[in-house]
Amino acid sequence: xxxxxxxxxxxxxxxxxxxxxxxxxxxxxxxxxxxxxxxxxxxxxxxxxxxxxxxxxxxxxxxxxxxxxxxxxxxxxxxxxxxxxxxxxxxxxxxxxxxxxxxxxxxxxxxxxxxxxxxxxxxxx
Length: 125
Fold this sequence. Notes:
The protein is α+β, with helices and mostly antiparallel strands. It is built from 4 helices and 4 strands; from the N terminus they run αβαββαβα. The protein has helices spanning 15-26, 49-67, 91-98, 116-124; strands at residues 29-35, 77-78, 84-89, 103-108. A 4-stranded antiparallel sheet has the order 2-3-1-4. The relative contact order is 0.24.
């Protein structure tokens, strides 16, 4: 199903269609957008690499937000150290996001069930 997602490689089959349907039904849907940035090879990292990475993340976030004007501006959450954005989008904004080359993934921002190991640990307390 990712074939119609032009530049988004890490999207589960049917996920974008489901998110789009949710956005149309509710008006908006909360998503976490993975951002594609250039990564330095591990052997090439130096003390400036973390700052360069933060700058690359900020630049990619700004490029995405400039390309897709988000109606719910107060919903935008930028992350400084990881290449992600959290936002609330309409179906039209979701469609625009999925076409951007800077976007690596789009997932619904929701609570998940804990892993089975976490359930087992919780049961012992």
